[in-house]
Amino acid sequence: MCIDYSGRDEITRTAAALAQAASDGDVVPFPTGPDDVARHLPHPDMPDVDLLWRTGNEQRTSNFLPWHAAYAELYFTPDFWPDVDRRDLWQAITKYSRRQRRYGAATLTRNTTGIPPTPDPPPA
User: Fold this and answer.
1) How many angstroms separate the CA atoms of 113 and 118, rounded?
2) Is the alpha carbon torsion for 85, 91, 96, 97 positive or negative?
3) pTM, rounded to two decimals
4) pLDDT tens-digit profile of 96-112?
5) CB hemisphere CA count around 78 (13 angstroms)
6) 15, 87, 105, 124 - which has most CB atoms within 10 Å?
7) Rounded to the nearest 5 degrees, what angle is found at the Cα of 50, between the Cα atoms of 44 and 52?
8) CB–CB of 89/80 below 8 Å?
């Protein structure tokens, strides 16, 4: 449970810490990558979120863990939190286990343009 939490505040504090580290010479400012940002989060050892379950029929993340939930699978249910039980948890886990996680990668889609795809060139 998170109380008095702001994901935007977490990102702002992370940016300030990263800027200070760059100013102190502890981080090379260019290129700065995701690993550099993650190391400067308030809780850098916290793992990424796998499943973000939102109750109460809301379909938004509400500023909740924007960095850690970037590739989370989202699950929405109409019941409010006090009304859910272990059967709801089991259903959420079951649906999550059936998903194909891609971590932001695109999937191949069916060509609906009517234009045949360009073949790959032969190997050299």
Assistant:
1) 13
2) positive
3) 0.72
4) 999 888 887 776 666 56
5) 0
6) 15
7) 105
8) no
Strand partners, 54: 76
Residue 60: exposed, middle, or buried by beta-carbon count in 10 A (0-12, 13-18, 19+)?
Answer: exposed
Residue with tokens 């916290």: 46
SS (H, E, C) the chain: CCCCCCHHHHHHHHHHHHHHHHHCCCCCCCCCCHHHHHHCCCCCCCCCCCEEEECCCCCCCCCCCCCCCCCCEEEECCCCHHHCCHHHHHHHHHHHHCCCCCCCCCCCCCCCCCCCCCCCCCCC
Q: What is the pLDDT of residue 106?
A: 72
Amino acid at 110: R
